[in-house]
TrEMBL record, chains A, B:
Gene3D superfamilies: 2.30.30.90, Winged helix-like DNA-binding domain superfamily/Winged helix DNA-binding domain. The lineage of its organism: Bacteria, Pseudomonadati, Bacteroidota, Flavobacteriia, Flavobacteriales. It holds the Pfam family Fe_dep_repress. Residues 1-63 form the HTH dtxR-type domain. Keywords: DNA-binding, Transcription, Transcription regulation. This is Transcriptional regulator MntR. GO terms for molecular function: DNA binding; DNA-binding transcription factor activity; protein dimerization activity; transition metal ion binding.
Length: 220, 220
DNA sequence: AATTAAATTTAAGTAAGCTTAAATATTTTT
DNA sequence: AAAAATATTTAAGCTTACTTAAATTTAATT
């Protein structure tokens, strides 16, 4: 499959699982940086190849085959991120940038070698789950957005759902890293802002950030 | 630059440095598996971009810029081969197959990280020299083809110049590996066949093989 | 409910990288 | 040196993945 097709189904999949907006050609176009017309064309083509269902003016829906393809690409993306992070200690932004390209030129064989080498990890360095070789995500995600946490409790950072360099730079600067521990000290304005304590620093985050930082409760 | 262009200049470079046939569009077409017409078109386009010199019916000649691009792609190819070989113990054929794709989707930044991680190696697992970040091959190659060796002498395998699975499988089976030691026990029929001893086995190789296996003399 | 705004689709066109077939030039053989 | 064989180039056309502009449909506003 071509790079264009792989990125297209992947973007649909991620829009469906992570975002609230509907999965119409226009929204996919925006994310891919192409015109609406191009996205509509592509949607029709992929429908004829049984990768998705397309009905005029309706949201796009991946078929099982399309979902499988998306998960296969996502698997490769996240395995690359895990490998580059481990070997070269590159930043979250850098590993994402490289993985975005490498994911399309990686055989299933090589993906399996990478996975094996890393001990078949279930999560990438962002905390995103890595689909297995059958295109299944077996892990149950119990994490919640920071905006939904409770004052006074301690949490472990489980996911940083972003592709944005600025965000990652901010995270790196403040110790906001997959696996690190934080205390939620205050929720402001109906959870539109959240104060946390990490490494003895107090940080106030607005909803742009608290909606994409996911955490798990701890027992302490 | 596109994959097509990178493979094109790389193929010209390799034809110039490794092969005896002239570097006309037809020969490049054959190696790339495209039509002569396509190769001629591409040659004209690359000439207009100052990557090579094109004159009707003449051999193609890379400009400095074209050569630099070729060496940059070759650097990435060989770094990938070295990394995959080291990490995953893949065969020479497998690492080549993957590198052929990955080489086009690798930033200079990532190439430098790979090189660094490997200790800036000067050779890949085939024994081919790895250009440095400036696109220079600093290593002086003193190796000779097995067909040009002398009876009774001991040599170290320095290069296996092939992309062929069958050849690599044969090599792997018989211990013909970069760095291994062999004794040339006999040269037959004006060096069209060569008998060597390796791991106490005698093997007779014909010129298909002795022309692509390179070795260095030892002092013993 | 009608009007306006926004999103989606259709239509027409482009560039890259190929193809095959025909025309032309070069190389080899006689 | 001519003829035949081979290689190269030109010409015409195809597919993929895009573009912009116009037409149409849907959604939002009054
Ligand atoms: Mn990523
Ligand atoms: Mn991608
Ligand atoms: Mn190789
Ligand atoms: Mn290649």
């Amino acid at each position: 499959m071509s790079v264009a097709i792989e990125n297209f189904v992947k973007t649909i999949y991620k829009n469906d699982t992570n975002d609230s907006n509907d999965t119409k050609p226009g929204n996919i176009a925006k994310k891919l940086g192409i015109s609406n017309a191009a996205a509509t064309d592509m949607a029709k083509k992929l429908a004829s190849r049984n990768l998705l269902q397309y009905e005029k003016y309706q949201a796009l829906q991946l078929t099982d085959e399309g979902t499988k393809m998306a998960l296969n690409v996502i698997r490769k993306h996240r395995l690359w991120e895990a490998l580059l992070f481990k070997l070269f200690d590159m930043s979250l932004h850098e590993i994402h940038r490289e993985a975005e390209l490498l994911e399309h030129e990686t055989s299933n064989f090589l993906a399996d070698r990478i996975s094996e080498y890393l001990g078949n990890p279930k999560f990438d360095p962002h905390g995103d789950p890595i689909p297995n070789a059958n295109g299944e995500i077996t892990t149950i995600d119990t994490s919640i957005a920071l905006s939904n946490t409770q004052e006074g409790k301690t949490y472990i950072i489980s996911r940083l759902m972003s592709d944005d360099k600025e965000f990652f730079d901010f995270c790196a600067l403040n110790g906001l890293k997959y696996g690190n521990s934080i205390i939620v000290t205050k929720q402001f304005n109906k959870n539109k802002m959240t104060q946390i304590t990490i490494n003895n620093n107090n940080i106030i985050l607005n909803e742009d950030f608290t909606n994409i930082i996911y955490v798990n409760e701890t027992n302490y």
